[in-house]
């Protein structure tokens, strides 16, 4: 098909040089795809390189502790990816002796691996004719073919997958899949694409109908949830503080944070002091309370915004489970906490 040939020809002349494009090792491809989920290449590449150096094989990753992996993952967000990465590595080592499944259907059974990732690994590593469909692919297909079906609808998911499957170069599925993803990432960009230099500018329906900015279509998502976080940064006279592990499911599971008071609104000094006074960490001891940031720090996640204050709580002593302030850097923490640590300069 003309579309596929034009696309792969463009790719041969314009593809970027990435380390995962120089291998067909499924471990490396899997690792790169998991890291690049919800993450731009410029942010994900350094993490990929560090993971490869630290865990050169799936056996090394499987033998690591979850806390070590979460610490290395720190700053990438969507930490369930890191936990799934570890779970899957152990599964592949224990069940398959380190050998990755070689088909789309079997790859799809791995934790954290969905349609897109299974298609990418199956096509790139094992030459299976299964098309990838990610955000870049949705955008390219929606614009070129003028498709207005919402990409985040059940109908849209099926329609775009079927179309991508019809277009794939059956002689070289790996090249086609990488080409269409690269084209969406660098040429058919979300905003201000260079349509004048596009090899499809004579046949792109969105360009002909002046719909570039309107495609692809997405259904309205759920309403953002507002949450109010108050982190208590306890500091004792001998330089100790307190960290707690988030054990509940949801954001930041198994990461560490300062003791948290969540409220239904932004709290002022008096409101917070009354709560701190009864906090179990203090055990009735006297304390001095200072607000670190006057304005809420707004930390934006996919479906919620966290309005955050950091409160410094100075105390004479802390309980035996406290840690030295200098050791805080060794714990895996959310980026929100990490940014505070850097600015507070522990």
Automatic annotation (TrEMBL):
Cofactor binding annotation: Binds 1 [4Fe-4S] cluster.
Catalytic reactions of this protein: Hydrolyzes free adenine bases from 7,8-dihydro-8-oxoguanine:adenine mismatched double-stranded DNA, leaving an apurinic site
Names of required cofactors: [4Fe-4S] cluster
Alphabetic keyword roster: 4Fe-4S, DNA damage, DNA repair, Glycosidase, Hydrolase, Iron, Iron-sulfur, Metal-binding
Domain HhH-GPD: 35-186
Reported function: Adenine glycosylase active on G-A mispairs. MutY also corrects error-prone DNA synthesis past GO lesions which are due to the oxidatively damaged form of guanine: 7,8-dihydro-8-oxoguanine (8-oxo-dGTP).
Entry protein name: Adenine DNA glycosylase
Gene (name only): mutY
